[in-house]
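Support request from a user on the community tier.

User writes: "When I paste my structure tokens into the form, the page sometimes reloads and wipes my input. The last time it worked, I copied everything first. Here is what I submitted, just in case something in the input itself triggers the reload:"
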């Protein structure tokens, strides 16, 4: 099932815009083959070889 990660990186605002101890705040979004959608919160992870990462320009 394809997974989309949506989040942001903010330096110097840890614990305000993100959780304490991290500069990242990321949520996964996925849709199963039956159309059921799910989301959550990412605490840790790795990207697979060949994964696509898109970063918005300022």
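"...and here is what came back when it finally went through:"
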């Amino acid at each position: 099932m394809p997974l989309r990660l949506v989040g942001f990186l903010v330096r110097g605002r840890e614990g305000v815009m993100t959780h304490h101890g991290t500069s990242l705040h990321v949520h996964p979004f996925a849709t199963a083959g039956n159309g059921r959608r799910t989301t959550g919160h990412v605490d840790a992870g790795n990207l697979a070889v060949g994964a696509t990462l898109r970063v918005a320009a300022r």
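Agent notes: The reload is a front-end session timeout and is unrelated to the input. The CA atoms of residues 10 and 18 lie 8 Å apart. The radius of gyration is 13 Å. Escalated to web team.
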